[in-house]
TrEMBL record:
Protein source organism: Pontibacterium sinense
Cofactors that this protein relies on: Mg(2+)
GO molecular function, one term: catalytic activity
Transmembrane regions: 12-31
Cited Pfam families: dCache_3, EAL, GGDEF
Gene3D superfamilies: 3.30.70.270, EAL domain, PAS domain
Domain of life: Bacteria
The name this protein goes by in its record: EAL domain-containing protein
């Protein structure tokens, strides 16, 4: 018997110890590396955040000056002074505003220029702006006024000033430019307040600075113009520049062992004149470095302790299994020598353990093998008897199958090599009309069939069966039954031996009549649309694939009915089916015989034009677009306009695979829909179009599913009358339900709906559901009616049928128009303002109120306020969020409120989230407020008592006088 030279126990211990050491070292190394990487990423995020915050503060500074530049020329006394080119009067008109703006906004410069660039008048701080800078600003203002183009730039000499040069047009069509300069020192304070990081502004050394100046940085040739926490950080910055030849990103350790990170912020997007300022941030990172070092040291300590404990546990775990394995290795050779009794001594199970492992299983298995080997002969004998029994059962089964075939619904016969039928089963005799006895005379095999359906030389094949391998012959034919009908039968002929020992032919025929008829019907259904009779998607794709395989040229047209779902829902499915049949007939009548016309499903059709060029495709689309532009009579006897959008793609120019070509034509069709109803478009293979269309297609399917499966939800947000803390009305907000727990906001799908032409269906759905909700609410709360503000998109407002749709829905649900507020955004009228204005005037005459949403952003124009029949003007939330902390925003809101009041309109403030903002709004004269402080959007109407708004702060005399 072989003896082990080196125990597997010590091999395992040695190997696993090396593995544990490698794992421990790797984990500690990976842990340390991960911490250092995370520290670097944290530093990069901090630096990026600082750059972004500085850029944001500069943009905010610029935007505030732009809003002020847009507002000041429209003030009454300023506008009249500009009109009269009266410099002294303009100086007097600006002076009251100058004192307020210089104090609150830190303005340095405020001047106005006429259209030729001549200075009309203004004010500036003479001690903060030099003569050279004044001349440079005037030159830039003249160019901006002449070019009618805004300019934004920064100038740093003795002070750092941010200038905005904005052309303007007063209400009396007087053109000019306004220049506003603002000291940027407040950016330093805001930056330190937002990030808790000190910010310094350094400018190149000027003639007025000396080497003894405390703000002088001689190594960098820079001068510290501004620095947050100057008393503590000036010395740090001095020390850093003493050790660095240039101002760049670095980490500095002071004599007190304090670490600082200096970062030079990027201001590439800001135009400057004169000196280029440097924005430098200082951050104390001592605590961060200490925490990193402590964490690394703890990781190393834990790794070493873990390795030691793992070694001890390893030795304890491996000791007992190796002893058990030694017993098994001594027992297995005994089994090979049939020494089963001696082997049992080693394999006899010891004390049972609660938890068994592989070695326990191995030991028990070896014991079972020992016992099974002793009983092997008996087991073999038992298996032999069982096998014999199974063979007997199989023989009986084969005999049963033979009898079953004799009575099965098959034509089973035997015939000679010459085709003379010898025997036929009963079912076969009944089929041919000869139900006599088995020995009654039978016709020959060929006379049973229609001659033309029998294959050629079938008799020769039967006679040659013995030479075939295998000796079988199968064919199909039509058999004449006893009723004179035809049956499709498949025959299988094989060579057998008769009872007399002579060769005979066994023929088995299966009736396939019903299956063939069903296959013919299914074949037509598989390739045609049952409603229109056109080819279906499957058949069309086969035609397209064959055409593409041949490599010939052609065009693919994609046709989609406009507003088909609206017609189907309002007029009924019968009218919708008639529309589809009408489209199919028109397409077949005006296409060539070689063209393939198919219906893909729903209201989508395609046409395949072989050998068509781009010119031909455009001509066909133009012709079909004109033919499909018609009118339909609805169930209520009203006449509705009907049209189709067409998209085309060329092959192989726009795709060599059928899926690519279909996608290209589909995207071209949706591009046509974006142009309006009844349009056509030939595919343009630009990357941007493909990416946008693919995303739009996904959202379009979600929108259509939401419309068809009623997955849209209405939410209601209250709007507060701030004078008495009562609810004025509620705004209707739209959400899409996506699964049981997800609600999609409108910002995700409304832009897609506007691009793909589905926004009109959404508008109609929201308006109809809102009126349906109002009708139910009025019935339940008749003594306390409410009003709803419904957002409507530009295409719907500009539609010539929108007013009729609105009044029809009011009549259907019994809603008074004065309970509805149509809310539109200020950019909604830029495409067709006159059509929208006509529609709004009709609604306003009926009592419906109109609200202009998001005023103050985008294409703001006060001329809209004078032309449109508005009741409400909603200020954009960007002016409200920080209103209680921003004097400049308060000035803008107050001026806007007074101007809107002059047009007999009232203002609504959005994003009111704190009582401080509400108090300021009351003081500034704002009439209505909307936001989370008042109430969040809810799927149900919440009353003032439920919202608890009666307890909101009311304005005091002190707050109003402030």
């Amino acid at each position: 018997m072989l003896q082990a030279q080196f125990s597997i126990r010590w091999k395992a211990v040695l190997f696993l110890s090396m593995v544990l050491i490698a794992i421990s070292v790797s984990m500690v190394t990976l842990y340390t590396h991960t911490l250092l990487q995370e520290a670097d990423r944290t530093t990069q995020r901090s630096v990026l955040q600082q750059d972004q915050v500085l850029a944001s503060l500069l943009r905010e500074l610029r935007d505030q000056q732009i809003q002020l530049a847009l507002l000041l020329p429209n003030l009454a006394n300023v506008s009249e002074s500009i009109l009269g080119h009266n410099s002294e009067r303009l100086q007097s008109a600006l002076h009251p505003h100058w004192l307020n703006l210089a104090l609150n906004l830190n303005l340095n410069y405020l001047y106005m220029f006429d259209e030729q660039g001549s200075q009309l008048g203004g004010l500036h701080h003479q001690d903060q702006i030099g003569a050279l800078e004044l001349e440079q600003v005037r030159d830039i203002a003249r160019m901006a006024a002449e070019d009618v183009a805004p300019r934004y730039f920064m100038s740093c000499t003795t002070q750092c000033t941010y200038y905005v040069v904005e052309p303007f047009i007063t209400s009396r069509e007087v053109r000019g430019a306004i220049v506003i300069g603002r000291n940027i020192s407040e950016i330093v304070v805001s930056f330190q307040h937002l990030l808790d990081v000190d910010l310094g502004v350094l400018i190149p050394v000027s003639d007025i600075t000396t080497s003894t100046d405390a703000r002088m940085m001689p190594n960098w040739e820079l001068h510290t113009w501004a620095l947050s926490n100057f008393e503590t950080q000036a010395d740090v910055l001095k020390a850093i520049q003493a050790n660095l030849p240039a101002a760049e990103d670095s980490v500095f350790q002071s004599d007190e062992n304090i670490h600082y990170r200096m970062h030079v912020l990027q201001t590439d997007g800001v135009e400057t004149i004169n000196a280029q300022p440097r924005f430098i941030s200082l951050q104390n990172i001592t605590e961060n470095r200490r925490l990193l070092e402590n964490t690394i040291n703890k990781g190393i300590t834990v790794g070493v302790l873990g390795w030691v404990l793992a070694e001890l546990l390893l030795f304890m775990l491996i000791l007992k299994p190796t002893r058990q394995l030694a017993r098994i290795t001594r027992a297995l050779p005994l089994l090979a020598g049939s020494e089963f009794g001696q082997a049992r001594k080693y394999l006899s199970p010891r004390n049972r353990r609660w938890f068994t492992d592989e070695l326990d299983v191995l030991e028990r298995t070896a014991l079972q093998v020992c016992e099974e080997l002793e009983a092997l002969n008996q087991t073999v004998a038992d298996n032999t008897r069982e096998l014999h029994t199974q063979m007997t059962e199989q023989t009986r089964a084969r005999q049963f199958v033979s009898r079953l075939l004799d009575t099965a619904p098959l034509i089973i016969l035997t015939q000679s090599r010459d085709g003379e039928i010898e025997l036929m089963n009963r079912w076969g005799r009944e089929v041919i009309g000869n139900p006599g006895e088995m020995d009654s005379p039978l016709p020959d095999f060929q006379s049973l069939h229609v001659p033309d359906t029998m294959p050629e030389a079938w008799l020769d094949r039967l006679q040659d069966l013995d030479t075939m391998d295998p000796p079988r012959y199968q064919h199909e034919a039509q058999l004449k039954d006893c009723d004179g009908g035809l049956r499709y039968v498949t025959w299988l002929h094989s060579l057998v031996e008769s009872e007399a020992g002579k060769p005979s032919i066994l023929s088995v025929g299966m009736d396939l009549t019903k299956r063939v008829e069903a296959e013919n019907k299914l074949s037509w259904l598989a390739t045609h649309d049952t409603l229109t009779g056109l080819q279906n998607r499957h058949s069309f794709q086969k035609h397209l694939s064959r055409l593409l395989e041949r490599g010939s040229r052609g065009a693919l047209l994609f046709i989609d009915a406009d507003r088909f779902k609206y017609i189907n829902d309002t007029a009924g499915h019968n009218v919708g089916d008639s529309v589809l049949i009408y489209i199919a007939q028109l397409l077949e009548q005006h296409t060539r015989d070689s063209d393939v016309v198919a219906r893909l499903g729903g209201d989508e059709f395609v046409i395949l034009l072989p050998r068509a060029s781009a010119t031909t495709a455009r001509a066909v689309m133009a012709k079909l677009s004109t033919l499909l532009d018609t009118h339909l009579r609805m169930s209520d006897r009203s006449i509705q306009h009907f049209s189709c959008s067409l998209g085309g793609a060329l092959y192989p120019d726009h795709g060599t695979r059928d899926e690519d070509l279909l996608a290209a034509a589909d995207m071209a069709m949706y591009t046509a829909k974006q142009q309006g109803q009844g349009k056509w478009h030939l595919y343009d293979a630009s990357r941007a179009m493909i990416d946008r269309m693919q995303a739009d297609l996904t959202w379009q399917e979600k929108i259509r599913l939401a419309l068809s499966d009623d997955l849209f939800r209405l939410y209601f947000q209250p709007i507060l009358d701030v004078t008495d803390n009562s609810i004025s009305h509620y705004e209707v907000l739209l959400r899409m339900q996506n699964g049981p727990n997800e609600v999609i906001p409108p910002g995700d799908f409304i832009p897609v709906a506007e691009r793909t032409g589905l926004i009109g269906q959404i508008d109609t759905w929201v308006l109809a559901e809102s009126m349906k909700f109002l009708a139910a609410y009025n019935e339940e709360h008749g003594d306390s009616p409410i009003s709803l503000a419904v957002n409507i998109s530009a295409p719907s407002i500009q539609s010539p049928t929108f007013d009729r749709t609105f009044f029809r829905l009011c009549d259907r649900h019994g809603i008074s128009p004065d309970q509805i507020i149509i809310e539109i955004t200020e950019t909604a009228f830029l495409s067709d303002f006159q059509s929208a204005l006509l529609t709004l005037e009709k609604l306003a005459v009926s009592g419906c109120r109109i609200a202009l949403d998001d005023f103050g952003v985008g294409f703001s124009s006060f001329s809209y306020l004078k032309q449109m029949p508005l009741s409400y003007v909603k200020m954009d939330g960007s002016y409200v969020r920080e209103l209680h902390r921003s004097p400049q925003e308060q000035i803008f809101v107050k001026c806007l409120t007074e101007m809107v009041s002059g047009f007999n309109m009232t203002t609504i403030a959005e994003f009111v989230e704190t009582e401080e903002i509400l108090v300021v709004l009351k003081r500034l004269g704002v009439k209505y407020a909307q936001g989370y402080l008042i109430g969040k959007p809810s799927p149900v109407i919440e009353t003032a008592d439920a919202l608890g708004i009666k307890n909101l702060a009311m304005p005091t005399e002190e707050s109003c006088e402030a």
